[in-house]
Amino acid sequence: MVFAAPGEALARARGLLDAGPPPLHGSVAHQVIGIWQRDFGDLRLALRHLRRARDLAARADSAEREADVLATLGVALVHAGRTRQGLAAFERGVARGTGHTRARVLYRRAYVWWVLGRHREALEDVRRAIPVLRQAGDVIWTARALTLRATVHLALGAVERADADFTAAQALWDTTGQEHDKADAVESRGLAAFRQGDIPAALRLLDEAEERYAELGTPTFMLDIRRCEVLMAAGLAPEALAGADAAIAELDGIGGQSTRKAELLLAAARAARPADDPHTAIARAAAAVRLFAGQQRAWWEAHARLVLIEARAATGRRSGRLVADAAALAERLDSFGSPAAPEASLLAGRIALALGRPADAETHLAVAARSRHVGPPLARMTGWAAQALRARAAGSGRGVLEACRRGLDVLDDHRMTLGASELRARATAQGAELAALAQEAALASGEPRRLLVWSERWRATVLSAPPTRPPADHALLSGLTAFREIAARAEAARRDGHPVPALEREQRRLEREIRSRTLRLRGEAPGGGDRFDPARLLARLGDARLVELAVLDGRVHVLLCGEGRVRRFEAGRLADAVTEAEHVQAGLRRLAHPGAAARLPLVEAAGRRLEELLLGPAARHLGSGPVVVVPPGSLHRVPWALLPSLRERVLSVSPSASSWLRARGTEPPPGGRRVLVRGPGLATGGAEVPELAGRYGTPTVLEEADAHVSRVLRELDGAALAHIAAHGTFRADSPLFSSLSMADGPLIVHDFERLHSSPYRIILSCCDTARFASVGADELLGLVTALLPLGTAGVVACSAPVNDEAVVPLMLALHKGLDAGLCLAEALRDARAAVAGDATHQATGWAFSAFGAA
């Protein structure tokens, strides 16, 4: 009962002890309390009760009872880090028990072998236990044994065998009322889905298991460890690190299992590495190594040492000793049958290359490269990274590019199984090394067109397909509605000067729930979409120029496309350009307020410096036609119209050349339907909207009280032109919750992702709508990047705070140009020239950019 209804079992056991039972019954009661404390509470109390249970079983002269308790005690001792005592208890338990009881003891010893990382012994004991349990008709323990065997198979990389055992166990669990065991089975299936590379399914199953555990009121430390693994693979390392550290604190608070603490420390160390926190990784991994060593868990200790060596190498501590340690670790992991062995070989090869020891590097990289054809996606990418490094060391540029292409193809297939745009974006970080190696080889080839291809291969890939839309997910829709209501109530309370901690807590809870549901969405399209063709781009450009900025080794390289060719120019250092762009943003913020005109020359001077850093000599070769700028993610806030050579031009910005080509090929919808939206609380009252309504004749106008999110979305779907005047809020911490304020609360990016076809052209006349969060390798998440894959061909948006009153004439002039048949970029250029020439109006014009190609 302790794994069907843990709380009730604990209460009954205590009640039985209060009644003064005979030794046999008292032994059972103390064992139940010991199990509960072992798995859900204080391990010290668990050991006290289990020793009492053992002594009472001996007094009752029941060998079978004593054997059963010894097995439970053995598990607790091992979890307490007393491995030698635990294994000795199992020896006595196996000797005392017979038949069915011995099979149960063997199952629990197999579990302990798994905890210790001794997988072959675990398989042997569970192999001996299962036939006896089946013959005895013991459904519950047979299902437990099958679940354990599946988990061991997963640790050894035998995913198909694990899947077969999980399926057989699930059929048995469905016939029982063992709710905790069932939750554990769901959790284990989540781990299996992860090992097969299905992250959305893994997240869904882990969430389901967590809900089941919550109903039972039991802790979830093993689930926390597994969720960390999945979050790291999904590119969410900071969240994984925070989750692991929180679980460690909770475990310490209840005096929980030492073995789980060691595993959580390892999970935290693994998460700290991709979270760019190598010092935390070193501290957590070193602590895990000490605990695993004390617990005699050699398999686990080896994995912790791998993370420790990786973290030390990341801090620049490279030496011949570190190469030898990594190589020895690879052999040890291979002897354990661990799928992590290629990672250790790759690490040894990388360090050897950095030390200038190519012969040693080749030895280790060749071993790592064997994994490129087998296993889950990330394991195959490890192999292709090793192959690319081998080719580079051998001086084969062609070999580098081929290995990078094959590795990124693997990642593309994996990425497109993810339905959420956030996961797709973050997954690109897994291929950052391959992309960098390919760009380096392309640059060395001296062929700008090849460098352009590889720059595009890894740029704005999240925009290559729309996110999966969940129209039938009523729970998600309900969550969005509740989130909007709570956010609106919180905002109203703030305006009235009232504290809102309870509303803010509920808003954060709903955000987590919405995000959790979207992360589970599965992608619909395999493959990475159409391959970029430079010839097609050059043919479509006409008299325009496309300027793609690639960053290699910290320096900006300008790829100037036009006149049927691609030319490369070297500009300044990226770090200097980012710093200068921040200064420009600060200047634009000041110019949004009256009385700051004296800063205008300073901002213009910064624009000239930015041009030198970002365009260099390419600025003199732009021709006289339109210009499309394709910046890296770190430069998304540059006000490109401020650069002297771009100031008077028809200028548009695109996340990638591929994205610009798709936008250029997008046809406007029939009917030319226009939608004008005016949200509440604007300083100018959205003054341009009434005038535009009169100019356009019969547009759809949604103003203030009528501008409800559901209706706004309904009208936006498939419109030819949408103009939205509403307060914009950018969320750097969670960019897909960036929003526009409507009458009933925020319209967030997740809402836009539910559109079947977003408007062909969108004008966002409010502040900060063109701000993005840079994630993954070089991906951008924000409002504009959410719209482009959904059918929007052109967006006008703002990357800085602006003067509300100065926006109105700019917007009216912009629409005048559109009425005359101009595209967004042409109309925006003319609008800048048409408005007043004072500092505030100039700064307002520079802050707006045209994105896309409509």
Description:
This protein has 854 residues and is α/β, with parallel strands linked by helices. The chain is built from 37 helices and 16 strands. The strands form four sheets. Strands 7-6-8-12-15-16 form a six-stranded mixed sheet, sandwiched between helices. Helix 6 (99-116) runs parallel beside helix 8. The longest helix has 22 residues, at 474-495. 57% of the residues are buried. The model has no long low-confidence stretch (mean pLDDT 90).
Strand order of the largest sheet: 7-6-8-12-15-16
Give the amount of beta strand, in percent: 5-15%
Number of strands: 16
Q: By helix and strand content, what is the structural category?
A: alpha/beta
**Cα end-to-end separation:** 66 Å
Q: State the oligomer.
A: single chain
Please give the largest β-sheet.
6 strands, mixed
Alpha carbon gyration radius: 31 Å
Tertiary shape: globular
Give the helix tally: 37
Mean pLDDT value: 90
Uncertain stretches: none
Helix content class: 55-70%
Domain CHAT: 605-850
InterPro entries: CHAT_dom, TPR-like_helical_dom_sf, TPR_rpt
Protein name: CHAT domain-containing protein
Pfam family, one: CHAT
In short:
With 854 residues, the protein is of the alpha/beta class.
